[in-house]
Amino acid sequence: MRTVYVNGEYLLENEAKVSIFDRGFLMADGVYEVTSVLDGKLIDFAGHAKRLERSLNALDMPHPAVLPDLLGVHRELVRLNAVEEGMIYLQITRGAPDDRDFVFPDPETTMPTVVLFTQNKPDLANSPAAKKGIKVISIKDQRWARRDIKTVQLLFPSMGKMMAKAAGVDDAWMVEDGAVTEGTSNNAYIVKDNTIITRHLGSEILHGITRAAVLRFAKEAQMKVEERCFTIAEAQAADEAFITSASTFVMPVVEIDGEAIGVGEPGAVVTRLREIYLEESRKAAV
Ligand code: PDD
User: Fold this and answer.
1) Ligand 1 pocket residue status of 55, Cβ below 6 Å
2) 216 CA → ligand 1 middle, Å
3) C-beta separation of 224 from 277 below 8 A
């Protein structure tokens, strides 16, 4: 059984409790981060910590006083649960006032709720899916407009995964005004004539921590990068396609809406980027 963290305490998962009035539960009024663990160490921790502050600020939530040492809590959970490879999930909500109310509670009296737990995934780096690539469908992006804030309102992404499952594929890429925004829980990329193309940052997508690292490594390796919109038709005519996230790292996409991408197998660029990402991130892990 896992040991989890709730509001300053380390507890067994079946002893951890949150109020029924918690605004995360009633209103999806909360933010989260997922940080991967390789070799028992945290990948891109500083990036996740920075984005967490950005999400909290965007929603006028104070940084929780019970969490002065974010890195220390992450490390302690990795240690207590002996995680070699996997993820740490962190969620902070606006807390539990004593009744349901649309108006934000006073932050002086209602403390945020902080929950962290680990997920063991022994095959995270050595993923079988990364060897053969995944298939996606395109769906209309019907999420709210502030996707740059990492909130826990994941109902539409969850519905997207179900649509993908019903279509017999692995994931969905969301499309808005004719252009791909991102995957249900990852950023989306195509490669054409050795140029890596991915949507530019804005409120339409989450500013992926893996995205930032991968683009930096690509530029360092003298690969060309273009941050701009692209369509599903352009993606289907691309040489390669892939996604990035803390839980998939760099993952090849070999089919979009039934059309094979390139030869329908992971290409040279994505394969190289995954290798570079894993190697560099392991070196910089804390
Ligand atoms: N998802 N876009 C969306 C909509 C996401 O939910 C995620 C991450 C990303 C990639 O961000 P990063 O590289 O920082 O993980 C892009 C996490 C993994 C999740 O919800 O489980």
Assistant:
1) no
2) 18
3) no
Catalytic center residues: 150
Classify residue 59 as exposed, middle or buried by CB count within 10 Å of its CB (0-12, 13-18, 19+).
middle
The pTM (predicted TM-score) of the whole model is: 0.97
Long-range pairs for 74-78: beta carbons < 8 A, 24 or more residues apart: 74/35, 74/42, 74/45, 74/116, 75/42, 76/5, 76/10, 77/3, 77/4, 77/5, 77/10, 77/116, 77/117, 77/118, 78/37, 78/40, 78/41, 78/42, 78/118
Domains of the chain: 3-120 (3.30.470.10), 128-284 (3.20.10.10)
Q: Is 210 in the pocket of ligand 1 (CB under 6 A)?
A: yes
What is the best residue among 48, 121, 185, 189 to mutate for testing ligand 1's pocket, by most ligand atoms within 8 Å of CB?
A: 185
pLDDT tens digits, one per residue of 120-158? 999 999 999 999 999 999 999 999 999 999 999 999 999
